[in-house]
Amino acid sequence: MARVSDLAGQLVRAAVLADRRAGASWAQIGAGLGISAEAARSRFGRSRRAAPASRVG
């Protein structure tokens, strides 16, 4: 079951990234997730994500 939860988290992160690239606001994303804009930004914002090693440099 941990694997299912991990995959679900990855799917949500990918959807948030796609929404942001499409111009969605944090308020819109938060509303879709049932959380505040600030919580969405805190959880999924750029400062919380580490760049993949292949893209660093």
Tell me what you see in this structure.
The structure is a single chain. The chain is mainly α and 57 residues long. The chain is globular. It has helices spanning 2-21, 26-33, 37-44. Residues 53-57 have low confidence and may be disordered. It contains three helices and no strands. The longest helix is centred in the N-terminal third of the chain and has 20 residues, at 2-21.
List keywords for this structure.
57 residues; single chain; mainly alpha; globular; disordered C terminus; 63% helix
Quick overview of this protein structure:
With 57 residues, this protein is mainly α. It is built from three helices and no strands. It is 63% helix and 0% strand.
Q: What is the string of helix and strand elements?
A: HHH
Class by alpha and beta content: mainly alpha
Average pLDDT figure = 86
What is the end-to-end distance? 36 Å
List the helices and strands and how they pair.
Layout: H1 2-21, H2 26-33, H3 37-44
